Amino acid sequence: MQEFYPCGGAASLRRTHFCLLLEDTVLVDSFGYSFGYLTTMKAIIIEQFGQPNVFQFVDRPVPQILPDHILIRVAATSINPVDIKIREGVIADIAPSFPAILHGDVAGVVEAVGEGVSRFKVGDQVYGCAGGVKGTGGALAEYILADAHLIAHKPQALTMREAAALPLVSITAWEGLIDRARVRPEHKVLIYGSTGGVGQIGVQLAKWAGATVYALVSSQEKAAVACGLGADVTINYRQTPVAEFVAEHTNGEGFDIVFDTVGNDNLQNAFQAATLNGTVVSLVSLSQQDLTLLHAKGLTLHLVYMLLPMLSGLNRAYHAEILANIARLVDQDQVRPLLDPRSFTFAEVAAAHAYAGSGAAVGKVVLEQFLGDCRSLQ
After folding, report:
1. Domain 39-165+312-368, CATH number (from 1.10.275.10, 1.10.10.10, 3.90.180.10, 3.40.50.2300)
2. Backbone angles phi, psi at 254, to 5 degrees
3. How far apart are CA 275 and CA 258, in angstroms?
4. Measured at the alpha carbon of residue 81, what is the angle toward residues 341 and 170, in degrees to the nearest 5?
5. Alpha-carbon gap, residue 172 to 281, rounded angstroms
6. Confidence at residue 38, expressed as pLDDT on a 0 to 100 scale
7. Dihedral-angle region of residue 264 (phi above 0 means left; psi in -120 to 50 means alpha; beta otherwise)
8. At residue 36, does pLDDT exceed 80?
9. 53: phi > 0 → left, psi -120 to 50 → alpha, else beta; which?
10. Rounded to an integer, what distance in angstroms lies between the CA atom of residue 89 and that of residue 256?
């Protein structure tokens, strides 16, 4: 059975015209003339690791639909630290093969549905973290083929740009605070990196769970942002040593939960800030650490590696479940994404990566697709 999509007149003959055309799909213009099958899309690739200028704009085949997958027309994607590290070759072992399309976070519209998929239909607005690592496609393209188990319906209250900022950081914060730490109303929760990608969601999830939230910040500007996210107390870690703010805010006992989005050597600060038999959740531990304090205080340490389901193929459906929960919280005005005020298009990917890697951004850096339905690059 063939499906027909209307397009915009004679311009449809151009190779650079970008209405999707898949197998058994024919593109027709508004007068009913068929122009055959389109099989390519615009994509942004890297063929080597390096600085932001390694990105190249190319034509690539449109991914063929597979069972249990959906094809998403990409509207927006956001930059996470892992995307920068993969581009740089810092974590080359999880990078997709060259030529590689990067980025996992995506918001867009379902264009095709594979066999076995029942939760989605063509036209659904969706979001998820579904690629950018070994064995997957990437969101820096017009279309991404995504395992449907990794995808959820987009929050109705958000634009595509806003929704694209949420998937990786929301899943990470949920796994760390809700699943691992099991945050509850009686807890005092200390959050390192409270205005960063994961930290901003961590503040909001901890508040939603009823905890008292202490946000560590580096400036008055970021203190105001953290308060706006719902933090009860902000602490400037550059001005106040760990021992001092532990004494001031917990009578020297320490925090029940320390959510450390910085990791590595900052783990020692997290151990110092935690109460006896407390919980530390970290996202990065690619270093050797002295565990003396961990032992002496009877702490529980959890490490969250959000990419595991994508890399291993195991338990992927739980990511969609988390994203569905996040979407409900967003639509109930309990969670909202924090976006950096600067905006970028896909054509500005190099500048966006340079900016995101500079440390100057407050909130997520998002790129929006520069092509709408049936528009050419010229």
Report:
1. 3.90.180.10
2. 100, 170
3. 9
4. 75
5. 11
6. 58
7. left
8. no
9. alpha
10. 37
Residue 137 near residue 131 (C-beta atoms within 8 A) = yes
Q: Give the span between the Cα atoms of 365 and 80, in whole angstroms.
A: 8
Asked whether residue 196 carries a pLDDT value surpassing 50, the answer given is yes
Give the 3-state secondary structure of residue 230. coil
Q: Into which CATH architecture does domain 169-303 fall?
A: 3-Layer(aba) Sandwich (3.40)
Q: How confident is the model at residue 286 (pLDDT cuts 50, 70, 90)?
A: confident
Torsion (CA) 152, 155, 156, 159 in degrees, nearest 10 = -110
pTM given for the model: 0.87
User: pLDDT tens, 71-87?
Assistant: 999 999 999 999 999 99
Tell me the pLDDT of the chain averaged across its residues: 88
User: Above 90 in pLDDT, residue 134?
Assistant: yes
Neighbours of 47 (CB within 10 A): 12
Residue 125: Cβ within 10 Å count:
17
Please state the domain extents for the chain. 39-165+312-368, 169-303
Question: Above pLDDT 90, what percent of the chain?
Answer: 83
Please say if the pLDDT value at position 91 is more than 50.
Answer: yes
CA 360 to chain centre: 18
**How many other C-beta atoms are found inside a 10 Å radius of the C-beta of residue 157?**
13
Q: What would the two tokens of residue 71 be? A: 């094809």
